[in-house]
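Hi R.,

As promised on Friday, here is the backbone we talked about, encoded as structure tokens. Could you run it through your design pipeline when you get a chance and send me back a sequence?
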């Protein structure tokens, strides 16, 4: 699909949200983007057989005659969805793959208060961008459980992320929006918390193997590339680099919640630069301080093998108040600019 610059801007306005239509663009740029192609793909997965379940009769549309539904047979399962936007003349040497945490690819697309998200920021910085929904989330789709996915899905309440994502103290959450008290100086746009909570999608805690396989599949399909992942996605990104040393040219982990196991050979990724980004209030949070300790030990192993494992600690850099969802905070462009400068310093952009 060939798009002139004006048509590209109209299409990308839909991706970026209301703020884009008002001229608010990452980096302060004003020129429309020249886009070569917008599309999507499903990668990975397998065919699974289900048998032994009873048939039932279902009406699919009001007024339609009932149909017999046979739940037995062979089904495509464990595939992963990705949306891509390719530029006419990318500055980046490699595509940028954006992998979410426990939510969906919406993490990267538009902030809860309607500003362009990191998808648009990095497009404007010159990257072809792929945004994924992990296996069993969003447009990747479910599979039957427990016949295919072990266990049951986990559903996140409206307020669950308030403390977990370091928006405020657990005791300061309230179902009444007017009574919620965030941390002083917090950057998350709490007036739009309920809009953010609508991004929650059912997830499983038993599908790490399947998710990793799908991420490895997209690496094989579109890379060499740079992988940027947040939260749960961080471990998948670290492992994807281990599994495809010739494909993953850099890993950027935004507050990763996990790392490869003790038996992982960190020396193998010595040639793959890593950067880990942290927001604020981690030292005061026992859960996140423990996670950060685990990640720092992984980084130490990478450095001991001669690799690059940098840390962008936003509070240490004088940027305070960021939550776990720092790509949605009101200074999200500032954080993204610092990540972009790291990529430039690593030679991942063309001159």
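Update: got your reply. Pasting your designed sequence below so it's all in one thread:
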């Amino acid at each position: 699909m060939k798009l002139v610059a004006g048509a590209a801007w109209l299409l990308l306005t839909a991706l970026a949200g209301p703020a884009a239509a008002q001229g608010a663009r990452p980096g302060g740029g004003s020129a429309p983007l020249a886009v070569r192609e917008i599309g999507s793909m499903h990668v990975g997965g397998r065919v699974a057989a289900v048998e032994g379940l009873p048939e039932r009769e279902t009406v699919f549309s009001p007024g339609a005659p009932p149909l017999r539904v046979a739940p037995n047979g062979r089904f495509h399962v464990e595939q992963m969805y990705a949306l891509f936007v390719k530029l006419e003349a990318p500055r980046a040497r490699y595509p940028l793959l954006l992998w979410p945490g426990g939510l969906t690819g919406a993490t990267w697309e538009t902030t809860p208060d309607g500003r362009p998200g990191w998808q648009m920021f990095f497009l404007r910085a010159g990257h072809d961008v792929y945004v994924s929904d992990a296996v069993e989330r969003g447009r990747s789709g479910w599979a039957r459980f427990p016949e295919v996915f072990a266990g049951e899905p986990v559903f996140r309440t409206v307020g669950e992320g308030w403390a977990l994502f370091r928006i405020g103290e657990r005791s300061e959450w309230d179902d009444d929006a007017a009574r919620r008290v965030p941390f002083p100086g917090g950057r998350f746009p709490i007036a739009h918390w309920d809009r953010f909570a609508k991004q929650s999608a059912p997830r499983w805690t038993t599908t790490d193997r399947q998710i990793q396989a799908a991420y490895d599949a997209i690496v094989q399909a579109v890379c060499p590339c740079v992988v940027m992942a947040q939260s749960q996605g961080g471990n998948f990104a670290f492992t994807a680099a281990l599994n495809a040393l010739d494909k993953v040219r850099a890993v950027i982990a935004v507050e990763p919640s996990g790392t490869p196991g003790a038996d992982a050979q960190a020396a193998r990724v010595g040639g793959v630069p890593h950067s880990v980004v942290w927001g604020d209030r981690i030292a005061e949070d026992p859960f996140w301080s423990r996670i950060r300790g685990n990640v720092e030990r992984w980084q130490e192993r990478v450095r001991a093998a001669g690799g690059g494992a940098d840390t962008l600690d936003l509070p240490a850099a004088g940027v305070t108040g960021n939550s776990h969802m720092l790509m949605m905070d009101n200074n999200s462009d500032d954080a993204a600019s610092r990540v972009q400068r790291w990529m430039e310093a690593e030679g991942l952009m063309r001159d």
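One thing I noticed while checking it: The chain has a mean pLDDT of 91.

Thanks again,
M.
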